[in-house]
Structure formats: structure tokens, C-alpha cells
Amino acid sequence: MSETLVKDKKSSILLNSEPIVKYRDVTKSFGDVHVLKGINLDIHPGEKIAVIGPSGSGKTTIIRMLMTLEEPSSGDIIVNGTNLWKMDKKGLSIRANEKHLRDVRGDIGMVFQHFNLFPHMTILENCMSAPIHVKKENKEEVRERSIKMLDRVGLGDKLEFYPSQLSGGQKQRVAMARALVMRPKIMLFDEVTSALDPELVGEVLEVIRDIAKNDDMAMVLVTHEMDFALDVADKVLFLDQGVIAEQGAARDVLEHTENERVQAFLKRFRRG
Amino acid sequence: MNAIIEILPQLLRGLQITVSVLLASAIIAYIVAFIAGLARASKNTILNKIAGVYIEIFRGTSLIVQLFWLYYAIPMLFGIQLGSNWWTGVIAIGLNYGAYLAEVVRGSILAVDKGQTEASIALNMSSYQRMRLIILPQAVRMMLPEVGNYTIQMMKATSLVSLIGMRDILYYGDIMRSTNLAQAPLVYVVVLLMYFILALPFIWLTRKGETLSKKGVASQ
Amino acid sequence: MSSNFRWETFVEAFPLVLQGLGLTVGLTFACFGFALLFGFVWIFLRRIPNKPIVWICTWVMEFIRSTPPLVQLFFLYYAWPVVPVVGVTLEPFTCAVLGIGIHYSTYIGEIYRSGIEGVDKGQWEASTALNFSNADKWKKIILPQAIPPTIPMLGNYFIIMFKEVPLASVIGVGGILFMANSYGASHFAYLEPLTIVGIIFLALSYPSSILIRKLEVKMNTRFDKNAVLSKSKMKTIQGMNLEGSDRIV
């Protein structure tokens, strides 16, 4: 009980700060399919948000647009006060070029459903490549930090292993270390446990829980793990047919909701 | 056996031309294939089209025609003498197989799993860094068996330069055949064996490449 | 020799070069047909349950495939007639069909093999369970499933052989390249007739390769996607897998 109180207190403080990310009337269509129909969402520094909802509801698309993997059809995504997908050119607002995207997305990191580790690099090299080449950081410093990070996710003894030598759960933990070494202010998790064998889910959730408790970055988790969402998230979004159908404190949405769609969805999940 | 001892040194005189044409045309083919293949895989429509025209022209006509055509066309159209037929052979073989290998390069680049690009975007890599650090190292591994195969094809193709007067293995074989027809079967068998021995390392490389190409690669 | 490309020469040479087209196309069909048949010989030989025979056969195929067809043509044309006992003089056309046909049969044989290996193992077991004779097993069950998926790849080899056939001009078979060269020799103008040859090849092989690509897509939807021999699968075919060769079904 006291822990929940602390968390609620923490999130109320967070809400007073300026949002680090703002979605304004964001839509996305693939051809005739309207995946997202007007998303408005604020992400505050340090806030942990879980996104739930039936498959095909557009959950993943929300975070993929923030990671610049998908371009919105309309609307704005503002990161640190800068429009992500649009830039100014001689007073005109035009489509962002790669340089602009790179400048703005630097604070964002992402972990994928299928890990997407680089198979030709050892797991240490996986962690080191981006800080060295993208951020031009000192190699020795990056190395030290990477080892520390891999240690933290429990893989400190496998630095020279290649991804193909690891289990799915281990791969996903490397993927998280790789993202963390870049010191993002926002971390996106795209159904990170759904490609894993059931017995490996726990070890990955444990690492995320650890990050959520001890790091002050904002986190957006697209997930099917309801109990986990309840435990980790400050806020839960329920996405249905391309709109945010319900949102609020985790406990309110997951345990006391009046929304019938949410109830039906949760019932189906809890049973399984 | 005595006959072979007599034949072999004669044929070996042509080895230098065969090997040098192979090496030079292979280098040209690899470089051209790399550039054209990257252009084909890029989103730049102009580069893509230019590379496409080059590939279709060289794959759509046969090497022996290209060889003869260049043999007459280079001095005539450009008013330059390449100095030797060696260059004509090397350019013809290099450009022809460069076109085939360009498709291999393109195919391998496109075969790298899309998740690899997404992960490197998530790490904020530039498109150049993505290609150099993530996509190409994996694509090159995938190419290896086909590169081995096409290098064997190039080795076979070097025999065509004897038709434009280069003194390669086949050229000396033909000379020996015309001076002593009774020896012809043995001469050509030895010629074939020499080509086969040249092919062996590439046959081995192709096999090795096949196992290697499956490692360290995320393919779609 | 003319010092520049001249359109008059081009126009004049065109009908003459074109006269060779019938022979070039005919030779392509003959070589391809022979390679199709001879490809079965390799398959047959490599299914003999005798390891040394299979081993020898595999290396002979590798030898033929890895050495220049030009030398093989010369061997058949110049050397074969003087080989003791078996040697006979061959007509240039026959020589070209044998030389190019056998060379490419080693590739075609590999295509057949992957087609046969692509047939589900259960099909063999089922046809045994139904007590088919060995011949019927092949004729009625295995080959009807093994061959159709290979058709696009065989089509590709038809185009490859079409472009290889001008090689026969070196032993005097009068296709388009031969015609162009003889026009060149008599008029001291090579560039124009050779350009014509290039254009003819391009005009015929480019549309055919598009056709093959379409066929490949069609086959992909009709058959199990994995059974169709895509280009990527050809990797293993061209770099023939010796280790797998002693597999006898």
C-alpha cells in the first residue's frame, strides 16, 4: 500500500513538469486502413506508461512513429519542444529530412519484439557500436559502461558471445543493455516478451522492473502482460480501434474500469 | 607420360595471361558490382535507373559478342588504343560479370532483415553508418557462395581472350594442336585439367562460403 | 576498316546478320533439349547405389562445369576425331549441340536433383505403401511433382544457353555472330554488324527474362513456395554440394 502511495505521489510530481513528448491529433493510415485516428498523448519525464489493447489496435504504431520507423499521416509529435516529423525551412514547415530526425530522436531508445541484435557482432560490440560511432564517445569509457550494463542485465560473463549463442531471454536482455548504454531519456518497449518462450518471460520482465524502479527515464511499454503493467506503470492506455479508449492510473484502468470494452478485453486475458 | 612432360611447359607459358586476366577482370567485376549493386538497392531513382540499364545490357547480350564488340569499338568510338588486347579482355569480362554480380550484391543487401535497419535507426545511426556497420557486413557474408560461383564462371570466360589473340593457356594449346593433330586429345585434356586446377580453390571457397554465409547473418 | 560508326553499313548489314538468327535459335533449342535429356543421365548415374560411381560421377560433373566450354568445344571438334577407337568426326552443328549441351546438362542435372529432393518424403513412403512399381513411382508420383517447380529455373538456363550459343561460331556454325564476323571480314566493318548482334540478343533475351520472372511468381503461388527453385536456392546448385551427393533415396 505504501509503495503505491509513493508511486502516486511521484507521478503527480511528474505531471507538473513539462511533457517530454506530446502527440497532437496524430493519425496513421496504411492505404485504406486507418490504424490510428487521432492520438493525443503527453509523456512526462520519468513517466512509465503501459499501452494495452487488442491486436491491430495500433499500439505498436504509436511507438514506432516516435522512433521514426513510421511516418504519421497527419498531426504532430513534439519531442523536447521540437516537431519530430516537420522542420522549418525559410519559415515554411516541411517534411523532416534525415538530419533533423537524427537530431531529435537522439534521446529515444527502443527494444523490439524480435530483439534485432546485430548477428555479426559480439554482445559487447552490440552495446558499444552506437555510442562510439553515433555519439563519438571515448571507446574505453563506452567499453566500461557497456560491461557494467551487461553485468546489470546478468550477462557480464558472456561479453564475447555472439547473439546466435544466446537464448531468447538473454538476447532480449542484451537488446535492453544496448539501448540503455545510449542513455536515452525515453525508452520504448515493443511487446518485448511476446516472441519468448513462456519460461523466459520472467527474466526479461525482471530487468524491465529493475530499470523502471531505479532509472529516471520515461518508459512506454506496449505489452500483453497485465499484472506486469499494473506493477510497473504509472499510467495505462487502453487502445481500441485506433483511439485511446481509456486512460488513467494503472490500478483504475486495470481493476476498476467502467468501460465495457476494457472489461471484455481484460476478462479474455485474465482467463488465458 | 613423356608426352605430358613435353606438353606441360608449353602450356604453362600461357598461365600468366590466364591468371592475370582472371585477377584483373575479377577485381573490376567486384568493384563495378559493388557500385552498381548499391545503386540498385538505393532509393535514388536516377542512380537506380542507370545501374539498371547497365545490368540489363550486359546481362542481355552474350560475353563473346561484348568481347568482339569492344575489341573493335574501343579504338573506333573513343579513338584510343588501350595499348593491348589484354585490357579489352579484362574490361569485357569485368563488365559482364560485374553486371551479374551487381544483382547478387543488390539481392544480398535487400535480404538483410528489416529489423536490422530498424534497430540501427533506434540507435540513431545515420544511413551511411547503417549501411557500413550493419547491413554490408551481413550482406557480404551472404554473397560469398555466389561470388565464388561467378569467379569460376569468370575463370572459364578468360579462355575467350585467346580469340582476340591473347597468348593464354588455350592459345598455346591451339598452337600445339595445329602443329601435331595426333597430340590434340592429350593437349586439350591437359588444358582442361589446368583450368580445373585453377577452379579448385574457388570451388572450395564456394563450399566454405556456404557454411560461413549462414553464420552471423539475420536474413529475411 | 571504317573509322566511324556508319548507319548505311548498319542498315546494309542488318538483313544479312538476321539470316543467322534461325540457326542461332535452332541451335539453342537443340542444345537445350540435349541438356534436358542428358541431365537425366546424371540423375540416373548418381542414384546407382554404389558409392565410387556416385563419387566419380559427381567429380566428372564438377570437372565439366568448372572448365571452359570453349575448350570443350575444341576438344570435341579437333581432338575427338583422332581419339583412338571411339573417335569420329563430328559436324560442327552436332559438335556444338554435344559440347554446349553436355556442359549445361551438369547444371540442369542439379536443378532436377533439387526438384526431386524438394518432393516431400511422405510422397515416397505413400507410393511405397500403395505398392507402386519403381517405374510408376517415378512416372506417376515423383516426377510430376519434382519437375514443374523447376520450370522457371530451367527457363533461365534456356536464356543463358541462348547467350552461350554464339560460341559455336568459332567452329564455324553460322549463327548471327558468325554472320556478323563474315560480313565484317568482307566489308572491313565489324562494329556495325556486331552492334546488330548485340541488339538482337537484347531484344530477345530481355523480354524472355521478364517472362520467366512472371512465371516464377506464378509458380510460387501454385506450388509450395519452398519447392520453387528461386535464385537464392540456386546457390547450392551452382556450388554443387558434394557431401550431399551420396544421398540415395
Automatic annotation (TrEMBL), chain A:
What is this protein identified as? Amino acid ABC transporter ATP-binding protein (PAAT family)
- Which CDD domains did the record assign? ABC_HisP_GlnQ
Q: Which InterPro entries match?
A: AAA+_ATPase, ABC_ATPase_HisP-typ, ABC_transporter-like_ATP-bd, ABC_transporter-like_CS, Ectoine_EhuA, MetN_ABC_transporter-like, P-loop_NTPase
Compartment(s) where it occurs, according to its Swiss-Prot or TrEMBL record: Cell membrane
Membrane topology is:
Peripheral membrane protein
- Does the keyword Membrane feature in the UniProt annotation? yes
Biological source species: Ureibacillus chungkukjangi
Q: Where is the ABC transporter domain?
A: 21-266
UniProtKB/TrEMBL annotation, chain B:
Keyword check for RNA-binding, yes or no: no
Q: What are the BP-aspect GO terms?
A: amino acid transport
Keyword annotations for this protein?
A: Amino-acid transport, Cell membrane, Membrane, Transmembrane, Transmembrane helix, Transport
ABC transmembrane type-1 domain span:
15-199
Residues spanning the membrane: 17-39, 51-74, 86-105, 186-205
**Pfam annotation, one family:** BPD_transp_1
Name by which UniProt lists this protein: Amino acid ABC transporter membrane protein 1 (PAAT family)
Q: Which organism is it from?
A: Ureibacillus chungkukjangi
Lineage from the top down? Answer: Bacteria, Bacillati, Bacillota, Bacilli, Bacillales
TrEMBL record, chain C:
Say yes or no: keyword Transmembrane helix present. Answer: yes
**Statement: the UniProt record of this protein carries the keyword Transmembrane helix:** yes
Q: Which GO terms describe its molecular function?
A: transmembrane transporter activity
Q: Which residues cross the membrane?
A: 20-45, 165-184, 190-212
Q: Where in the cell is it found?
A: Cell membrane
Q: Which UniProt keywords apply?
A: Amino-acid transport, Cell membrane, Membrane, Transmembrane, Transmembrane helix, Transport
Its main localization is membrane
Concerning Pfam families, the annotation shows: BPD_transp_1
What GO biological process, any one, is recorded here? amino acid transport
Task: Identify its membrane topology class.
Answer: Multi-pass membrane protein
State the GO CC annotations. Answer: ATP-binding cassette (ABC) transporter complex
ABC transmembrane type-1 domain sequence ranges: 21-212
Q: Which family is this sequence assigned to?
A: Belongs to the binding-protein-dependent transport system permease family.
Q: What NCBIfam families does the entry give?
A: ectoine_ehuD (TIGR03003), HEQRo_perm_3TM (TIGR01726)
Q: What is this protein called?
A: Amino acid ABC transporter membrane protein 2 (PAAT family)
Lineage of the organism: Bacteria, Bacillati, Bacillota, Bacilli, Bacillales
